[in-house]
Amino acid sequence: MDKEEKTVDEELRDAERRGRLRFVIPLVIVILVLTGAAIYAFQIFRSGFSRADLAASCEVEEKGAAQYTAFGGGFLRFSRDGVSLLGTDGREKWNASYSMNDPHLVTQGDYGAIGDLAGRRVIVFSKNGLSGNYTTTLPILTFAVSGKGLTAVALDDGLTSRIQLYEASGSRLDIEMSFEMSMSGYPLAMALSPDGNGLVISFVSSNTGALNSQLTFYNFSVGKSEPDRIMGFFKYDGQLLPQVNYLGAGRVVAVGDSSLEFFSLAQENKPVLLESVELPSTISVYESAQGHAAFLYSDPSTGKMSLRVYNSDGGLCFDRETEGGFRSVSLEKNGVLFLSDTGLTYWNYSGKVRYSGKLSRTGEVMFMSNARTILQFDGSHIYKYRLK
Hints:
Blueprint: H1 2-47, E1 52-59, E2 67-71, E3 74-78, E4 82-86, E5 92-97, E6 103-108, E7 111-116, E8 121-126, E9 129-135, E10 140-145, E11 151-157, E12 160-166, E13 172-180, E14 186-192, E15 198-205, E16 212-219, E17 230-236, E18 243-248, E19 251-255, E20 259-264, E21 272-278, E22 283-289, E23 292-298, E24 305-311, E25 316-321, E26 326-331, E27 336-340, E28 343-347, E29 353-357, E30 365-370, E31 373-377, E32 381-387
Antiparallel strand pairs: 1-32, 2-3, 3-4, 4-5, 6-7, 7-8, 8-9, 10-11, 11-12, 12-13, 14-15, 15-16, 16-17, 18-19, 19-20, 20-21, 22-23, 23-24, 24-25, 26-27, 27-28, 28-29, 30-31, 31-32
């Protein structure tokens, strides 16, 4: 009897062990597969890619004298007559018509705006289509868009400039600022924060006989109790600041004649200068995106071109010599695409080459849809490359 009971107990324990094995073995297999995939991905990340294979292509109907840029996971095409967004399959996702003499494009996140400089028309759109449009009462000097579609426009009112704000739908907000140009200067450039609460304006004046700039920070939320909503300002004698950009919610970079100025807005009501980076006298191309700023310059000692990239704190990411004549540069999530006459170079933000080689087609506008896929557009064809 005891022997039979022990046998039954042993059978129960054996059944439990078999049940555990049926659960453990698949789990071990899954862990091994995931570990192998992670090791493979790490090796690819560390060693880079050796090929850029053309995986697919499609033809796109040409639209004459149009400009193109990467936007919303596709390619934005705009001209004096209208704008459209092309998907990676070459089909139009949406389009909008207008008539402008001097259309200028600004984008941030999923939103963009096209305004007629010296004209009075602005259209606002997202990756999903037209959001709104409006007509200003005065000529447009410059304008900016936030990551939520809010736009700010600087208008020319003779000896005064006026700043007005509009919702993405085109409805005007009850916020207006005016500046006497003899006092504040001319609004040369401006940028809105991703949430639309912050505004930075670069003013230029010549009261002293020389061109001087002032970078002024405003806030429409925490700055409600401050005179003119001013959070702070910085003066630059003898220097122009023709471009200003947000590199994220709490970082701003201003591009001057001789320096890059990096600011922190970790405290929205207290802008702080983080770094002032001296620019070479031979800078030819500037780009900012993905929390980074980059410029191309010629080394006076060698005559060769180099690309220098900074993070949003003003820290140097890398400075690398380039080959061939410049065609385009794109700051992506994981690194920088640099296209020249001799081919494509892809660096990560530590300056390590991920890929260097030829592309089988031409086309200056490109972006990465994921860590291994590059989309390229030449105006008539979209090409898809797979990094291997």
